[in-house]
UniProtKB/TrEMBL annotation:
Family indicated by similarity: Belongs to the HD-ZIP homeobox family. Class IV subfamily.
Protein name per the record: Uncharacterized protein
DNA-binding region per Swiss-Prot/TrEMBL record: 42-91
Main location: nucleus
Biased composition (Basic and acidic residues): 13-26
Annotated ranges, domain START: 212-447
Length: 705
C-alpha cells in the first residue's frame, strides 16, 4: 500500500511529460460545458480499496492518489466526501429498519396482551373482574380531589381578601391590564395582572353552597368526558371531518361517522333541531400561557372577542386547578353571542369550561353545555356540544391554535331571512370566525412593540409611539362600546320602538345610558340591515373612501368634505387600519372643529367600519398617552357581510336554508347610528331619527349604483 501513495514523474521516450499530457487530455474531454466524465471502473475499484484503509485521507494522501489514478486532487476530495455521506446514510437506513421491526414487534406484543387482559377471569368465581371496586375507587379519588380543591379555594379567598383593599370588578380594566393597553401608564399597575386569574374567586364562592346546583362531582365527570371527545375531534381529520361543499375549504363533521363514534340523543326539546360544526387552525403571536389565562378569565375573554360575545360571567368555580398553568381549572359560565345585527337573535349558553395541560407545551380548553340546575326553569334554544381549542407552543415563540365549534340549535327560533343563509352555513358562529378575531387581536397586541411604526403609516399627527398606543387604546374602547350598543337583546337596552320599513329595512330604536368621565348621558340608537347587489369589496371601498364620505355620512357636507390626516396600519391585513379625519377647511374656532376617529378591520364574517366624533382637546389627551377614561365617545358603525346562498349545500353534513333568495352575490349591510339626546325620547324625535336613518340608507344605495 505504501507504493500506492508514492509519487514519481513519468517521462515518455520522446522526453515529454506523460502525466501532464494525460491531464490536458482529461481537460479536453470535459468539453466546453465543463462537465466531468465518470470515473472508470478501475479508478472506482482503486478508490474503494483506499476508502477501506483510510476513509478520510489528508491533503498529501489525496494528492498521491490523484497522481496514481490520473485524477485531480479535488476530484479525490469530492469522491471521498460523497462516499462518506453515502455510507452514513446507508448505516442510518439499516438502523431505522431495525428499529421499525422492533417497534412493530412490541406493538403486536402489546396488542396481544391487551386482548388477553380483556378476557381474563377471576380465579375464585370464574367471572370477569368486578367493576364496582374500580368505580368506588374512582369516587373516593374524586372526593379527595374535591376536598383538596375546597382547601385551595379557601386559602385563595383569604389571600385575596387580605391583599386587596378593593376588589377590581371592571372587565374592561382586566382586559386592558392583561393586553397591556390600560388607560394608565403607571408601571405599578402591572402587578394587578397577576391576580386576574383569581380575581373572580371571592365574587362567586357564594354560589358553591346553592342547593339547586347539581353536585360538583357530576360537573367534573361531564367536563372530563367532553374533553376526551374534543381531543378526538381535534386530532382526527378523515373520516370525522370532511370539506364543506359550499366553499370546499371549511371542515365540517361527517354526521354518520360522528354518530357512529359518539352516539347520543338530541339534547334540545324541540320539534325541529339542527347542528352546526366547523374546524380550523391558525398561528397567532400570543404565548400559550397568556392565551390560557385570557380564556379562563370571563371578563378578559368577553372583551378579547367583543365582536362575538356580548355577555359572559362565571356562575360557579367548580375547580381551581394549579396556579402555575391553570391545569384542572373548571368554570361554570354563562355567555351570550351575537352577530352585530338586530335581525339575528343572540345565542345563550350555560356551559362548563375545562382547562387541562396535556404536555409541557400543549393545553386544551373544553366547553360543553350543562343543565346545572336541579330544577329546570327554561328550555334552552342552543346547546354547546364538546367544543374548544388546542393551544400548542411553537419553537419560534408563536402559538398554533386549533379550534372546533359544535352546537345543537332549536331551528324554530327563526332568523330573519336576510341573514338566514349566513347563520345556517356556519359563517356567523363557526370556528373560522373565532380564529380570525383571535388573529386580529394578536396583531393588535403586537402593535405595542416599543418604537414599532409600520412603514405604511401616514401622517405626522401620530408619529410618536406613545401617540399610536393611545389611539389604539381609544379605538379598542370605541369598538367595545359599538358592540354593546348593537346588541339588541332584551337585556341591557331599553327598547323603545321596532318597525319594519319597505325593501326589507328594519329599524330598532333603543335608548341607553352612556358612561363617561363627564357623567351619564342618554343616546338614541337606530339600526338597519339591508341587502346590496354590490360585491363586498366594492361596498367596503365606498365606505372607506374619504372623497365619498360626504355622500352618506351626515357629519360632513359635500362643500367641505373630510380629509384623512393620519393613519395607523395593522400588519395583518391591508384593510385593517385606524384613521383620523378632519374637515378640508377647518373651522376658525378650534372648539368647533370636528375630528372623526375611525377603525376599519376585516374578519371571517365580513368588514367593520366603526367611527366616532372626538373633540380636538380630547385628541391631544389621547396622543399624549394620558388617562383615556375622561374621553367621551359616541360610536356609530357599519358591518358588511358577503351574501351567500345555500342552494348547493349538501344535506349530508350541512344545514340548508328553507328559503333561497336566489342570490349568490351581493352584500348584507348593517348600519347603526347613535345620536346624543338631552331628555327622554318623544315621538317627534323618533321620527327625525327614523328619517335620518332612511336618508342615510338611501344615500348609500344611490352612491353604489
Amino acid at each position: 500500500m505504501a507504493s500506492s501513495f508514492s509519487s514519481s514523474s513519468r517521462i515518455g521516450s520522446d522526453g515529454r511529460d506523460v502525466q501532464q499530457e494525460g491531464s490536458n487530455e482529461r481537460k479536453r474531454a470535459r468539453g466546453s460545458s465543463g462537465t466531468c466524465v465518470r470515473h472508470t471502473p478501475q479508478q472506482i475499484a482503486k478508490l474503494e480499496e483506499f476508502f477501506k484503509e483510510q476513509p478520510s485521507p489528508n491533503d498529501h494522501q489525496r494528492k498521491q492518489i490523484a497522481e496514481e489514478l490520473e485524477l485531480e486532487p479535488r476530484q479525490i476530495k469530492f469522491w471521498f466526501q460523497n462516499k462518506r455521506t453515502k455510507s452514513k446514510a446507508e448505516l442510518e437506513r439499516e438502523q431505522n429498519d431495525a428499529l421499525r421491526a422492533e417497534n412493530f414487534k412490541l406493538k403486536m406484543e402489546s396488542f396481544i396482551m391487551i386482548e388477553q387482559l380483556k378476557t381474563i377471569k377471576c380465579s375464585s368465581c370464574g367471572n370477569l373482574p368486578c367493576q364496582n371496586f374500580e368505580n368506588n375507587k374512582n369516587v373516593e379519588q374524586l372526593m379527595l380531589e374535591n376536598a383538596r380543591l375546597k382547601d385551595e379555594i379557601e386559602k385563595t379567598r383569604k389571600l385575596v381578601e387580605s391583599n386587596m383593599e378593593k376588589p377590581q370588578s371592571q372587565p374592561e380594566l382586566q382586559l386592558e391590564l392583561t393586553l397591556g393597553i390600560g388607560c394608565s401608564n403607571d408601571p405599578s399597575q402591572a402587578s394587578a395582572a397577576n391576580i386576574s386569574a383569581v380575581q373572580s374567586v371571592p365574587q362567586n364562592l357564594g354560589l358553591s353552597s346553592d342547593e339547586n346546583i347539581i353536585p360538583k362531582a357530576q360537573m367534573i365527570g361531564a367536563a372530563i368526558a367532553a374533553k376526551d371527545e374534543l381531543l378526538r375531534l381535534l386530532t382526527t381529520n378523515e373520516p370525522l371531518w370532511i370539506k364543506s361543499r359550499a366553499d370546499n375549504q371549511t371542515l365540517i363533521l361527517h354526521r354518520r361517522s360522528y354518530e357512529r363514534i359518539f352516539p347520543r340523543v338530541p339534547l334540545i326539546e324541540s320539534s325541529k333541531t339542527r347542528e352546526e360544526s366547523s374546524k380550523g387552525s391558525r398561528i397567532v403571536n400570543i404565548s400559550p400561557m397568556r392565551l390560557v389565562d385570557m380564556f379562563m378569565d370571563p371578563g378578559i375573554w368577553r372583551h378579547l372577542f367583543s365582536t362575538i360575545i356580548s355577555k359572559a360571567h362565571t356562575i360557579q368555580e367548580v375547580g381551581m386547578g394549579t396556579l402555575e398553568n391553570r391545569s384542572g381549572a373548571i368554570l361554570l359560565m354563562h355567555a351570550d353571542m351575537h352577530v352585530l345585527s338586530p335581525l339575528v337573535p343572540s345565542r345563550e349558553f350555560n356551559f362548563l369550561r375545562y382547562c387541562e395541560q396535556i404536555t409541557d407545551s400543549v393545553w386544551v380548553i373544553t366547553d360543553v353545555s350543562i343543565d346545572y340546575l336541579k330544577e329546570k326553569t327554561l328550555t334552552p334554544h342552543s346547546w354547546k356540544l364538546p367544543s374548544g381549542c388546542l393551544i400548542k407552543a411553537m419553537l419560534n415563540g408563536f402559538t398554533e391554535v386549533t379550534w372546533v365549534e359544535h352546537v345543537e340549535l332549536d331551528d324554530n327560533i327563526q332568523t330573519y331571512s336576510l341573514y338566514k343563509d349566513v347563520v345556517s352555513t356556519g359563517i356567523a358562529y363557526g370556528a373560522q370566525r373565532w380564529l380570525s378575531e383571535l388573529s386580529r387581536m394578536s396583531e393588535r397586541l403586537s402593535s405595542f412593540v416599543p418604537n414599532y411604526i409600520p412603514s405604511n403609516d401616514t401622517g405626522a399627527v401620530i408619529g410618536a409611539a406613545e401617540g399610536r398606543k393611545g389611539m389604539i387604546k381609544l379605538c379598542h374602547r370605541m369598538l367595545k362600546s359599538f358592540c354593546e350598543m348593537l346588541n339588541m337583546s332584551k337585556r341591557g337596552l331599553q327598547q323603545v320602538m321596532t318597525r319594519k320599513t319597505k325593501e326589507g329595512v328594519w329599524i330598532c330604536m333603543n335608548q341607553m345610558n352612556i358612561e363617561s368621565g363627564q357623567g351619564n348621558r342618554r343616546s338614541l340608537v337606530t339600526a338597519a340591515s339591508f341587502w346590496l347587489p354590490n360585491p363586498l369589496n366594492d361596498v367596503l371601498n365606498f365606505f372607506i373612501d374619504a372623497d365619498k364620505r360626504a355622500q352618506w355620512d351626515f357629519y360632513w357636507r359635500e362643500s367641505n368634505p373630510p380629509i384623512e390626516i393620519s393613519r395607523i396600519c395593522n400588519r395583518q391585513h391591508s384593510a385593517n387600519f385606524i384613521s383620523l379625519f378632519q374637515e378640508k377647511i377647518p373651522a376658525a374656532n378650534p372648539s368647533e372643529r370636528v375630528i372623526i376617529i375611525q377603525e376599519n378591520f376585516v374578519n371571517h364574517l365580513g368588514s367593520y367600519i366603526v367611527y366616532a366624533p372626538i373633540k380636538v382637546g380630547e385628541l391631544g389627551v389621547t396622543l399624549r398617552g394620558h388617562d383615556l377614561s375622561m374621553v367621551s365617545l359616541l360610536p356609530s358603525g357599519i358591518t358588511i357581510t358577503e351574501a351567500v346562498s345555500t342552494a348547493n349545500v349538501s344535506a349530508a353534513g350541512e344545514a340548508s336554508s328553507s328559503r333561497n333568495h336566489g342570490r349568490t352575490r351581493g352584500s348584507l349591510v348593517t348600519i347603526a347610528l347613535q345620536i346624543q339626546i338631552s331628555d327622554y325620547i318623544n315621538s317627534g324625535f323618533m321620527e327625525t331619527a327614523n328619517s335620518l336613518l332612511n336618508l342615510t340608507v338611501q344615500r348609500i344605495k344611490d352612491g353604489l349604483k
